[in-house]
Amino acid sequence: MPLALLVKGFYSVMVMTVLSMMWGYVRGLTSGQRSSWMAKMPFYGWIGCLVIASIAFHLLT
């Protein structure tokens, strides 16, 4: 598989994941219900994993 195709696929998945997480976060902010910090931990953990994966991807390629 060519590297350019791998990079396009990686960034496409990253963009769709970040957009879906942003949608969930905004929905949580505007729903009127108060969410606990335990409910927010997976969101921040997932964003941290995306940051680490993208930095590692850039360093390795």
Describe this structure in words.
The protein is mainly α. It has one domain (3-60). It is 85% helix and 0% strand. The longest helix has 28 residues, at 3-30. It is elongated. The mean pLDDT is 80.
Give the helices and strands, then pairings.
Elements: H1 3-30, H2 37-60
Keywords: Membrane, Transmembrane, Transmembrane helix
Characteristics:
85% helix; mainly alpha; transmembrane; transmembrane helix; 61 residues; single chain; membrane
Write down the overall mean pLDDT.
80
The domain tally reads 1
Instruction: State the end-to-end distance.
Output: 14 Å
Low-confidence stretches: none
Bin the helical content: over 70%
- Main beta sheet: none
In brief:
The protein is an all-alpha fold and 61 residues long. It is built from 2 helices and no strands.
